[in-house]
Amino acid sequence: MIVPFPPGGLADLVARPVAEAMSRDLGQTVVIENKAGAGGGIGMSLAARSKPDGYTVLMALSSLTVLPEADLVLARPAMFALNDLRPIARFTADPTVLAVRADAPWKTVQQFVADAKNRPGAINYGSSGNYGTMHVPMEILAQTAGVKLTHIPFTGAGPAVVALLGGQIDAVSSGPAMVLQQVKAGKLRVLAHWGNGALGALPDVPSLKDAGFNAEYAQWSGLFIPKDTPEPIAQRLRSAARAAAQDARVKEVILGAGSPEFEKYVQADARRMVDVVKRIGKVE
């Protein structure tokens, strides 16, 4: 199972219990390989080029739908095409959250935005890489609020959150699971989320829409295989993913698996993200 990000990020967080559970269902060990780089593109392209025999699967994030369009915007050879990979199962689908250190001066997202307007470019945020799932939502917020923020890309979500805790950056947009423990420990504060209504794990945190900003973004994780994988193999892997979803040790991080609608979901998300990437434009 290729995880295209370093250990500690959302894809890795989901992949490890899923791999363990799928191993039991398949009767053989599913080994995690972290292949980080290029905002996830290196691992994703490696999976896309793998032999379609069922022995290589990819645990991807929603940046999968963004990177091919980013290659077009940057006028560089595409690392992979979206249709090189076949969706098998969606596991998580969470709105990202805006997290800052607990000692930061902003108690609300309105204060954060007001400060950003007064000091264009002074507030920075970290991400898992250009056009990734931590970069795109912050740019959506910046565009919606009419502010300029400084983007600092890291090799993955884990290093970005570590940098936030260490005071090297001011904020991140990440999946709730990545920061919840630090919020409970009193080290981080969540100002808002990119979803609709209340967020289960953080019920007191407002959505950006409720706070007056028309910004929405969901970070999903899902299992993919090379496009030419035979249907019987795809069905067997989908069955193993469904079995993993029922395992008590993975239910904490998995919201749903094996949805037959996942392919449509990916295609719709890709269409929406194309517009976002075009608005972001070229990032050096």
Q: How far is the first residue's CA from the last residue's CA? A: 31 Å
Can you name the CATH architecture of the largest domain? 3-Layer(aba) Sandwich
Mean pLDDT: 90
Low-confidence stretches: 255-260
Total helices: the number is 9
CATH superfamily of the largest domain: Bordetella uptake gene, domain 1
Secondary-structure element pattern, one letter each = EHEHEHEEHEHEHEHEEHH
Number of domains: 2
**Rg value:** 18 Å
Q: Give the helix proportion (percent range).
A: 25-40%
Oligomer: single chain
% residues in beta strands: 15-25%
Quick one: how many beta strands?
10
Largest sheet: 5 strands, mixed
Write a structural description.
This protein is α/β, with parallel strands linked by helices. It has 2 domains: 155 residues, D-Maltodextrin-Binding Protein, domain 2, CATH 3.40.190; 97 residues, 3-Layer(aba) Sandwich (D-Maltodextrin-Binding Protein, domain 2). The chain is 37% helix and 18% strand. The strands form 3 sheets. The chain has a 5-stranded mixed sheet with strand order 7-6-8-5-9, with helices on one face. Strand 1, helix 1 and strand 2 form a beta-alpha-beta unit. The two termini are 31 Å apart. About 2% of the residues have low confidence.
Task: Offer a quick outline of the entry.
The chain contains nine helices and ten strands. By secondary structure, it is of the alpha/beta class.
